[in-house]
Write a structure and sequence with these properties.
The structure holds 3 protein chains of 3 kinds. By secondary structure, chain B is mostly helical. Chain B is built from 6 helices and 3 strands; from the N terminus they run ααβαααββα. Among the domains of chain C are: 58-128, Ubiquitin-like (UB roll); 131-208 and 251-322 and 332-342, Threonyl-tRNA Synthetase, Chain A, domain 2 (2-Layer Sandwich). In chain C, helix 1 packs across helix 2, helix 5 (130-151) packs across helix 6 and helix 7 (216-222) runs antiparallel to helix 8. The chains are: A alpha+beta, B mainly alpha, C alpha+beta. Chain C: This is 39S ribosomal protein L39, mitochondrial.
């Protein structure tokens, strides 16, 4: 009902307009505003260029295709033979019987090696200092402070060079670990060192 | 087959040698590889204990062993050996060390002249494999402290007792046999005597 | 269920300190029931003893050894050396066999500490392992008893008798067992292997060896089904009225101790032979079976040939003191003394 009514009203309006136009025509030209008449040509649509887009802004690279599930899993977990990313418990750890630290089976204990390495460096430095740049013709014996030469035959000492360390022999650097350590170490210097390097 | 015996041409090293040498990636190619190894061998003879990556260490070890072995075999009056020492030892004072110190040290050795031990891995380094390369008989503290065998350990006590038991049983066996032997010999003697008498009679 | 009720009733009686000699307790428990009952009594008594500690006091335990010396503050009469080891590392827990208090007293790993002391752990590779070895041998004997009780069918009653002092140089650890229904049993090779398999199964359960000191009355009650043990108990408790019991899993036995920490510390082992012992019927038994075996601690690697020598030796009858043998026989006593001197 209502749309019909609107239609009728519309028709009536159209009719009124057409009658008025036929009777009076357009408003007279004199009443129009004075403007230059030369009409601009219609702007032709420009070809699309990437520069339009870039301009001041920026563009993100986005994946074109979805990654396969295999690829995604490989990226996540790695590959067992090459790089396996999840944490795996080590089963080859042992406890050092000297110091109680853990180390890998078949390798030196890190803690002991650090200690030994430091001592080795010191001895190496002393030896280099002692031997100098001349030809090396004698084997080296390292003595620590408070140690005297052990009794040996003279042939044993022939062609040996003694390098003295300016400190006491570390407790762990001894070859006769079989001996009990319950005995208190004596301070007297006439005791022979039980072993030499 | 007029082939010379290989063992007479070169001395046998007391270590495992890979069938193929390592290439030790280097810009200069094989020449650069040899340079690298010369440095390492020189360092080993000089310091007697060095830490290296396993590839370089193991490769240099073979050359060091060969060098010492040749020096022991031919002595310092052998021109090719001297040339070899001259080539491999970059510091010339070490040539003296090789012939005057290391040769006497290793003359009567029955094991390899060098020792290669795996060094501990540093934290978070999965792929570096370090080793410690050393000459035997060096004056430094031992890297591996061998636990001495204790006679009081239970397995040793058991084995000792078993040994004692076995000896006791053997001794008692022998003791028992001694008596028997004398009996046997005396009986055989009498038998012989009897035979003799019989012969005499016949 | 019935057993539990029975036991709780019994405990009540015990706590009331009434004379329970009037209690008629069945001597007809099957072996399995008897084991469970004993274990249950052990649990109750242990619980009671821990509750009796009351107000917790602290003691200072000074640990000496690797990785470094340190001081631990522990609970008096509750904390054991094993607890101290748990503060240190897994390696300490697994490898320690005995604890050494104040440098001279060997202490079980699972026995509560009573006062402040210094503490060292000893394993099989200690510098002076005699006590450790003895503890190991004693434990092996005790476990052999457990193995014997488990191995037989229900129709064969097993009455454990005793095991002598540990003598390692004799080559085998032993347990004398009374098998009343088997008058003349000579185990086949297969049967001996089965016994060994049972033994291995028991050891692989990796149970701790718990220690408990109980009064004579309770001890008698626990071993009510075993006439040999109940005869021995008054003798053992003569000095201070206490009997020292050890439990491994379900099995409870009398031993002077100390024993090792865990059955998992027993490594390679073999039950080698079962010999029949006969003698005068002084204790009312005419014959016993002597179970023999040989074992090594875990981690000891021995060549199969060397171990076969040990096994062959362990097959011979162990000359240790037989329960039948009294001091009248001077010759054999002399032999025993010799062996002891060597050990």
């Amino acid at each position: 009902m209502f749309p019909r009514f609107i239609q009728v009203v519309q028709h009536l309006k159209n009719l009124e307009r057409s009658i008025l136009l036929s009777l009076f025509g357009h408003p007279p030209k004199e009443l129009a505003l004075a403007v230059s008449v030369n009409q601009q040509p219609k702007p032709t649509p420009k070809a699309f260029s990437i520069h339009d887009l870039i301009g001041d802004g920026f563009l993100l690279a986005v994946p074109k295709f979805r990654r396969t599930v295999e690829k995604r899993l490989n990226r996540k977990f790695g590959w067992p033979e090459y790089v396996w990313k999840p944490f795996v418990p080590k089963t080859n750890l042992k406890t050092c019987h000297e110091c109680g630290h853990h180390h890998e089976q078949g390798r030196l204990c890190g803690n002991c090696y650090k200690k030994i390495g430091k001592e080795t460096k010191e001895i190496q430095g002393e030896i280099l200092k002692k031997l100098g740049s001349g030809p090396i013709e004698q084997d080296v014996i390292v003595l620590y402070e408070g140690e005297t030469l052990p009794d040996q035959q003279k042939e044993f000492w022939k062609g040996k060079r003694i390098v003295e360390m300016k400190k006491e022999r570390p407790q762990w650097f001894s070859k006769n670990l079989l001996q009990k350590s319950t005995q208190q170490p004596s301070k007297s210097t006439d005791v022979k060192p039980t072993d030499l390097a | 087959m007029n082939q010379a015996e290989v063992s007479k041409l070169v001395s046998k090293l007391r270590m495992n040698i890979k069938p193929e040498h390592r290439r030790l990636k280097n810009l200069k190619g094989p020449e650069g590889r040899i340079d690298k190894l010369r440095k390492t061998v020189t360092g080993l003879i000089k310091f007697e204990r060095i830490e290296l990556n396993i590839n370089r260490g193991d490769e240099a070890r073979q050359y060091a062993e060969r060098l010492i072995s040749e020096a022991i075999r031919h002595g310092d009056c052998h021109k090719p050996t001297m040339d070899m020492a001259n080539f491999w030892l970059l510091e010339k004072q070490l040539v003296h060390k090789l012939f005057k110190v290391l040769v006497p040290r290793f003359e009567n050795s029955t094991v390899s002249y060098t020792k290669m031990i795996k060094a501990p891995k540093a934290q978070n380094t999965e792929h570096t494999n370090k080793i410690v390369l050393e000459l035997r008989g060096n004056p430094y503290p031992d890297l591996i402290v061998k636990q001495p065998n204790n006679r009081l350990w239970i397995q040793n006590v058991l084995l000792d007792a078993a040994k004692y038991d076995y000896r006791q049983s053997k001794i008692s066996e022998i003791a028992a046999n001694i008596g028997k032997d004398t009996q046997l010999s005396s009986s055989s003697l009498t038998a012989n005597n009897k035979g003799g008498t019989q012969k005499e009679e016949s | 269920m019935k057993m539990k009720r029975h036991v709780t009733c019994l405990m009540k009686k015990l706590t009331e300190k009434s004379h329970f000699s009037t209690l008629q307790i069945t001597r007809f428990l099957s072996t399995q029931e008897a084991i469970e009952r004993r274990s249950y009594l052990f649990t109750l008594e242990k619980k009671r003893q821990i509750e009796n500690v009351g107000r917790i006091e602290k003691i200072e335990v000074q640990y000496k050894g690797i990785p470094k010396d340190c001081t631990l503050v522990m609970n008096k009469n509750i904390s054991t050396p094993y607890d101290c080891a748990r503060h240190l590392s897994e390696w300490h827990m697994e490898s320690s066999v005995l604890a050494l208090l104040d440098g001279n007293l060997h202490w079980d790993m699972h026995r509560p500490l009573t006062e402040s002391c210094t503490l060292e752990f000893q394993n099989y590779k200690a510098a002076e392992p005699q006590q450790v070895n003895k503890a190991f041998w004693r434990t092996c004997s005790l476990m052999l008893g457990a193995c014997a009780t488990v191995a037989f069918k229900d129709t064969v009653p097993v009455h454990l008798h005793s095991f002598p002092l540990p003598d390692i140089r004799s080559g085998s650890f032993i347990y004398d067992v009374d098998l009343p229904t088997l008058s003349d049993w000579q185990p086949t090779h297969q049967e001996v292997l089965t016994l060994a398999a049972e033994y291995v199964k028991l050891c692989r359960k990796a149970v701790p060896l718990e220690r408990l000191e109980v009064g004579e009355e309770l001890a008698l009650e626990m071993f009510v089904d075993n006439e040999h043990k109940s005869k021995q108990i008054p003798n053992i408790a003569k000095t201070n009225g206490k009997v020292i019991l050890y439990r491994a899993g379900n099995h409870v036995d009398i031993s002077r101790g100390p024993l090792i920490s865990n059955t998992a510390q027993i490594g390679r082992l073999a039950v080698t032979a079962v010999h029949k012992l006969t003698g005068p019927t002084e204790d009312g038994v005419s014959q016993l079976y002597r179970f023999q075996g040989v074992a090594l601690p875990k981690g000891v690697v021995l060549d199969h040939f060397a171990f076969s020598i040990l096994m062959d030796r362990a097959k011979k009858l162990n000359p240790a003191r037989s329960p039948f043998l009294k001091k009248e026989d001077p010759e054999i006593n002399e032999q025993i003394e010799n062996v002891a001197a060597q050990a």
